[in-house]
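User: Need the bound-state model for flavin-adenine dinucleotide:
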Amino acid sequence: MPDTKIPRQAMPKQRPKERIRNFNEVALGFSAELAQKEAERCIQCKKPFCIEGCPVEIDIPVFIELVAEGDFESALAKIRETNLLPGVCGRVCPQEEQCEIVCVLSKRFEPVAIGRLERFVADWEIREGKMDVPSVAPSTGHKVAVVGSGPGGLTVAADLARLGHKVTLFEALHKPGGVLVYGIPEFRLPKAIVARECEILEKIGVELKLDFVVGRTATVDELFEMGYEACFLGLGAGLPWFMNIPGENLVGVYSANEYLTRINLMKAYLFPEYDTPIRVGERVIVIGGGNVAMDAVRSSLRLGAKEAHIIYRRSRKEMPARDEEIENAEDEGVIFNFLLNPVRYIGNEAGRVKQVELLKMELGEPDASGRRRPVPIEGSEYKMDVDTVVVAIGNGANPLVPSSTPGLETNKWGYIVADAETGKTTKKGVWAGGDIVTGAATVILAMGAGRKAARSMHEYLTTGEW
Ligand SMILES: Cc1cc2nc3c(=O)[nH]c(=O)nc-3n(C[C@H](O)[C@H](O)[C@H](O)COP(=O)(O)OP(=O)(O)OC[C@H]3O[C@@H](n4cnc5c(N)ncnc54)[C@H](O)[C@@H]3O)c2cc1C
Ligand code: SF4
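Assistant: Bound-state model below.
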C-alpha cells in the first residue's frame, strides 16, 4: 500500500571531507531497504504524469511498483524496454526538472525519488553479477552508420540493432560514451557504468569503430559508398567557447573541455600512473555557472587546489547547474563569487597566467533567456591572483562534418537542421539528433532524439521512402 507519510529517502553520500580527497562516487546509492521504502511512497496514479515528464517514456509507476515488491529484476527489464542506460540516467538526469517535477506527490509532499530508484535497480544488477541482454530481431540485412557514441548515438544504435539492422558506431575518441566518458567526472558517473552499458550494446551486435573521425578518416558520402544505407549524426556540441578577452592564450588557462578530458578520459587524476599532466596550483578559478563549471571546480579541489572558485556573472538564483550539484560543491568548500565577470588575464614573464582582472556586475531586466541580464558596474574592476583558469561558458558545434558533407544544412550557429519529430536532415539518408541539433542540452534529451530518429530510420530502411 502506498504510504504518503513516509518521507522522501535521503541519498547516502561520502562525507565532504573525505570525498574531496578522492574521485570515488559521491552519492553511494540506496540499499534494497531504502529503495523499497522509497518505492512504497508512489501512489500509482491513474494518469501518471511522470511518464510524460520522461523524454524516453519509461513506465515509471510499473517499475516502481516492482521495486516496492522487491522484484528488482523485472523492474530493470521494465526500464530497459525504453532505456538502455538506466545506470547513467539514474545518476545524471535532471530528474527535478523532468519526471519528478510532475510527480503528483510534489504538490503536497516531496516527489518520489524516481532517478534514485532507477539507479538502484541498475546497480543491483551489477552487484548480483548479472547482465540482462535484450533480445534482437532476426537480421534485416540493412547496414546503418551511427556517428558519435554519446547518449544520442548509443540510443540509435541500440534501437536499430534490436530491430535487426547491422549497426556500426563510429567514434572519434578512443572510448565510447561521448560526454559521459570525457566530460562528466568519475565522482558523479563512474566510467565502469558507461563501459558496462556500452558492452550490452556490443552484445546485441553493434560494431564499434573507435579512433574514426568522420569528415577526416571517411566522409559521410564515403560511408554511403561503403554500403551504409542510412546515417545518424550524434556529434554533440564539443567545440569550446572562449570569451575572446586578452590573455586567454596564457599557459594555465584551459577550456573546460580540455581540462575535463585530461582529467576523465586521460585519467590525469591518476598521474603518474597515467601519463597525463595537468596543472592545478593553489588557486583555481572556473568561469561559468552550469554543470560543466561545477564538474571542473569540484575536480580542481580533488586535484589538490587550496582554493577553488566559481566566478559567475549573475546570482545563485540564475545558475543553470543542478541544485544538487551546487549543494555538493558548497559542502565541499567551493567558493562562489557572484555578479563578477573576467575582463582580462595577466601573465608572468614566462607566459603563465598569474592574475585575473574582474569586473563587478549588477542585475538588470530579464533577457531573451528569461534570466535577469548582468550589467557591468563601470570602474569596479579589481585583480585577483590565480594559478589556473578554467573557462566553462558553453560549447558550440564542430564544423567538421557539416563542412565535409554537401547538402547538409546548418543554422546560423552551425547546428545541424533536423526535423524535431523524425531527426531527418536536409540530406537524404542522413538523420541527426542530440546536442549537435539543439545545442548543449541533457543526456536524456539526446536519448529521446535518438529514439525518434531510430523509429524514422527503421521506416526508411524497410519502406525505402524518405
Ligand atoms: C562536463 C559536462 C557535464 C554535464 N552534466 C550533465 C548532467 O549532469 N546531466 C545531463 O543530463 N547532461 C549533462 N551534460 C550534457 C550532456 O552530457 C549532453 O547533453 C549529452 O552528452 C549530449 O549527447 P550527444 O549524444 O548529443 O553528444 P555527446 O555526448 O557530446 O557525444 C558526441 C560524440 O560524438 C563524437 N564525435 C563528434 N564528432 C565526430 C566525428 N566527426 N566523427 C566521429 N565521432 C565524432 C564525440 O567524440 C563524442 O564522443 C553535461 C555536459 C558536460 C560537458
Ligand atoms: S530517464 Fe531521466 S527523466 Fe526518465 S525516469 Fe529516468 S530519471 Fe526520470
